[in-house]
Amino acid sequence: MSIFLTLLWIYPAGFIALNDKFRKDMAKKGIILVVDDNKSVLTAVGLLLGSYFEKVITLSTPERIPTVLSAERVDVVLLDMNFSAAINTGNEGLFWLSKIKEQVPDLPVVLFTAYADIELAVKAVKEGATDFVVKPWDNAKLVATLLSAYRLRESQNEVKQLKEEKNALKNQLNSEPSMLWGSSPEIMQVYNLVCKVAKTDANILLTGENGTGKEMIAREIHRLSNRSHEVMISVDMGAVTETLFESELFGHAKGAFTDAREDRAGKFEAANKGTLFLDEIGNLSYALQAKLLTALQNRKITRVGSNKPIDTDIRLICATNRNIQEMVQQNHFREDLLYRINTIHIEIPPLRERREDIVPLAEYFLKKYSSKYGKNCNMLPATQEKLQEYKWPGNIRELQHAIEKAVIMCEGNTIKPSDFFFKTVTTTFIDKNETLEDMEKQMIQHALDRSNGNLSAVATQLGITRQTLYNKMKKYNL
Ligand SMILES: Nc1ncnc2c1ncn2[C@@H]1O[C@H](COP(=O)(O)OP(=O)(O)OP(=O)(O)O)[C@@H](O)[C@H]1O
Predict the structure, then answer these.
(1) Residue 142 shares a structural domain with residue 30
(2) What is the CATH number of the domain that holds 45?
(3) N or C end: fewer C-beta atoms under 10 angstroms in the chain?
């Protein structure tokens, strides 16, 4: 058939509308390889598919398939069943199908076949072809079949990527801990509790201010648990929207909603046999708390759009920086859910309540960032003192960032007190154990630190006389 006739054949008027609909649904993506010895078919199909795929490669001889597959990241192959230069008459399609599968096992291959070859095509599908299209072809069907083969490729890639991430996580979790516990009595109490409960399957609730290391400790619990050979999946409950909650956590069935093109597992299934870490649990809305509770009570979830319950086997760790007890009293958090998640409650102390850990943690981060930035930094004793005196409202996260910044900014390798710029928060931060006198002492100390010995300036700044300042310095031993 001439190219002209073939083009007329593939572009009947009614196809334009269909063509536009598909184009609206899908931006051009992916690489397709079309192999057919009929050059007019190749040109026509090439033109047609150019509207749907990012790149269309055409081959009139199958012998070049292996070279193209090595050079290009092909997503779909459209393969003719019969070539004039026969390798094994009637079975060339099967031969090249097996060659392609040898080279790229998962690559979707759609066969292009004449009516007479239908039986052969069915056999090919049994041997790994994704689908087949009969010649003379229906344009809409050809496009739809190839796009669905492409989506299959996309989801294969997603699964592969997920598996790689899962393996990377497993390796990371099975390796040495990447945290420093410290040795203060406050953190040792936490450490002992963690060691006691890690091997059990008890649900754990970690509470503490932002940056105290709740997620790190959750990872440590998982690493020390009997589930350490499986993954820990983290979900930030504050970031999950109301509408996506069920789909994120429980998964969805194909067609459950507009974008649900494939069946998809949720976080509960992904964490099966491992640990599910629900961060910021205090941010979960009251309505969603009931859905989470049902899943935890029944130990089963049902994907959105499906009615088949799926058993789950997870160890649950939750974390929050909010006062959950108070939230229960104010009817903002369900009491029954709290009982379910806090079989063991571990409170992580803020850094200012474990002062002896500040310098070891600072040294730990100093080593880490020195190596990252190709330096060999150390701290002056005065620097250590300054770090120990600061209140660290952002806890370990703030310390970590402060050290990283100091390593980057410091001239030479010695980190001096002046390499840290703490905001006046030191004097205004209210510790729950602090008295008015403690705060007054801190304010005076802070003003003195910045005064270069000018006591008159300090008195003026604080709005007191020089004599009152002397009296207070004496009282507070400053
Ligand atoms: N014991 C530790 N040793 C080393 N690094 C730590 C330690 N604890 C926390 N960090 C570091 O501090 C940062 C904050 O830790 P993490 O995210 O675990 O805190 P969090 O309490 O979960 O914080 P948020 O409440 O804001 O989610 C992380 O970058 C982590 O690497």
Answers:
(1) yes
(2) 3.40.50.2300
(3) C
Q: Based on the structure, what is the number of domains in the chain?
A: 3
**Predicted ipTM beyond 0.90:** yes
Q: Is residue 287 part of a domain?
A: yes
Q: What is the C-alpha separation between 271 and 284, in angstroms, rounded?
A: 20
11: containing domain: 3-155
Would you write out the chain's pLDDT as a tens digit for each of its 478 residues?
343 334 334 444 334 444 444 454 456 889 999 999 899 999 999 999 999 999 999 999 999 999 999 999 999 999 998 776 555 455 788 889 999 999 999 999 999 887 666 777 778 888 899 998 988 899 999 999 999 999 999 888 887 877 777 776 666 555 556 799 999 999 999 999 999 999 999 999 999 999 999 999 999 999 999 999 899 999 999 888 888 899 999 999 888 887 777 788 999 999 999 999 999 999 999 989 999 999 999 999 999 999 999 999 999 999 999 999 999 999 999 999 999 999 999 999 999 999 999 999 999 999 999 999 999 999 999 999 999 999 999 999 999 999 999 999 888 899 999 899 876 544 445 555 677 788 888 888 888 877 666 787 788 778 787 778 888 888 887 8
Model pTM score: 0.59
3 lines ligand 1 (CB under 6 A): no
* End-to-end CA gap in the chain: 100
Among candidate residues 290, 289, 275, 184, the one with its CA nearest the CA of residue 234: 275
217 CA → ligand 1 middle, Å:
8
* 349 DSSP assignment: P
In a domain, residue 453? The reply is: yes
d(Cα 170, Cα 274) in Å, to the nearest integer? 10
Query: In angstroms, rounded to a whole number, what is the distance separating the alpha carbons of residues 10 and 41?
Result: 10
- Please tell me whether residue 476 adopts helix, strand or coil conformation: coil
- Tell me the two tokens of residue 212: 């105290």
CATH number at residue 441: 1.10.10.60
Please tell me the distance between residue 182's alpha carbon and the centre of ligand 1 in angstroms: 13
Q: Is residue 405 part of a domain?
A: no
CA 300 – ligand 1 centroid, Å: 31
Whichever domain contains 317, its CATH number is: 3.40.50.300
User: Does the beta carbon of 321 sit less than 6 angstroms from any atom of ligand 1?
Assistant: yes
Residues 151 and 20 in one domain: yes
